[in-house]
Predict the 3D structure of the following.
Amino acid sequence: MKRFPRRRRITVWLPFALLALAVLVAPIPRLVPPQEREITISLTQFEFSPARLRVNQGDRVTLTLAASDVVHGFYLEGYGIEERIEPGVTKRIEFVAERRGKFRYRCSVNCGALHPFMVGELIVGPNIPFWRAMGLTLLALAGLLVYLQRTGAGYEEVVNESFEIEEAA
Amino acid sequence: MSAQRRTDLLARYPALKRLLLSRAVQPVPMLATLAFFALAVLAGLFGTPAGSRNFGIIFVWIVWWALLILLLVPLTGRLWCAICPIPAPGEWLQRRGIIRRTGGKLRTLGWRWPRRLKNMWLQNFGFLGIAIFSTVILTRPRVSAWVLLGLVLLGVALSLLYEKRVFCKYVCPVGGFIGLYSMLAPLELRVRDPQVCASHTSKDCVTGNEHGYGCPWLIYPGGLRRNIDCGLCTECLKTCPRDNITLNLRPAGSDLLAAQEGRLDEAYKGFIMLGCALLYSVVLLGPWGWLKDWANLERLPYWALYALGFLAFNLAILPGLFWLAAAIAHRLSSGKSSLRRLFVDYSYALVPFGLAAWIAFSLGFVLINGSYALAVLSDPFGWGWDLFGTAGVPWTPLWPDLIPFLQVGVLMPGLLFAVWIAYQVARRHSDTLPQAGRAMLPVTGFLLAVTLVFLRLYLG
Ligand code: SF4
Ligand SMILES: [Cu+2]
């Protein structure tokens, strides 16, 4: 049985690695002009409503937070924001959504059994980290598939006699 | 499989061997985990009902869980099973001793486990049974404590009726998935030379001798091929007069292709574990409050709907989609293997994939809530104690904005590993390499689709 030459294996996956690097570091500019956003979030056991916010990078966001049942908290990942929200007392928070991606907001004051799972999501678009992760995954998979198809790599034990490994041209 | 790619750890590190030959090496860590376990149960029963302030919740579902799924299972396979407190009381009752090798017969009726149950189905259904209540169990200290206590009592009861560690091997819902994923570990206990065993008539490892007990996991080490069967208790290392047992370092995932034929119960373990990781990521880590209410047993009819959906997804929908992929692969391959056989064999790709999914899911709450561990260490019952001065440590999420990237970093290698396994399976069932290259594609599509769902949940 012929083996696919080790030297040539690199030529199979190198293009994918280079492409992956490009996906990872390619600079992507701001797409839409920043706006002002006024959003009201209500907090109850054990959810934020709305539970998913979409804004764009550069937007100036003003959140009005109101708890209706018990004391909750508002902790926004990636933005270093943490507030205690007492029922009946609204809190206003202002920030500029500079970082792209998905950031969760979490209740930070123990409010009952499911408190650790009281979560909402802020998506600052364009959600470049998400698209980079998707691109990277697809590229890695494509690279592996091409590699397997070209080299037939596998455990020698599972190769039965009829297998012929084609040499790369 | 390729024996040349093994490193015999006991030959290389005699000190490790001396340590493992000691009779104390298993019971001493067991006593330690049992002490933590007892504290967890007591805190659960008598401590504060606020889960995040209760040692029973935090140490079991965050500290122990993180240790198990992020470290012990991926690196050491079933090592946890060797030091787990749950079977300890039952095993010590059987042996009438803890450390010393006691004489005489084991104190048990010694019934044989029914043949029909010598598989993972009980563990599959047991896991699902716990899983549909998991939102309640994870957040209610009392409920959590009763579940843990129930497992110990079941272990004791079975040890009185049946021989040895039947509970661990066929019943424990945790033992099931640890076993499945232990096949990935880069560590194994094996015999050095099966020929030596074949020619050894007294088989002390099975019968036991003055140095140790016969294998509590009811295996014959000479025929051991997959980690799933071995609890790493090291009794055979102590009993073997031929010095034929060792621990090997090996390529990760070596067991996945070791069996000639896959098993349907193990395939389902793979579906259930993947399905649960996916559903928990939606229910617990997702932003949908109504789903959390349903899962939380607020109103019985909604919970019933949730439980039904949960079971249907794990037992029918996910396997059904996989069946579809296997059916297409069946058409693309030589046809020499049945569709059922392809369905089962390809499912072993879900072992690396599922473990990656569990690690990714666990990162999503372990790093966020890990800081509670410091607080409950000082105040395990939530009674206002401050034993080590850490009771006031505030909730401090660790690298919350980094977690999605760690999750991608785990999911992606999991996907690639799984696809590689799918290719090896395709080679087994195909006549030529190009045919194998085509036959692997449907399952690859399934794996990719599930990965994209995870990415959407974690980053999108
Ligand atoms: S006692 Fe040792 S040599 Fe004999 S069968 Fe068991 S492992 Fe093999
Ligand atoms: Cu809250």
In short: Residues 3-255 of chain B form one domain. Residues B 191, 196-197, 200, 203-205, 221-222, 236, 240, 242, 244-245 surround iron/sulfur cluster (ligand 1) (CB under 6 Å). Chain B has two domains: 3-255, 260-459.
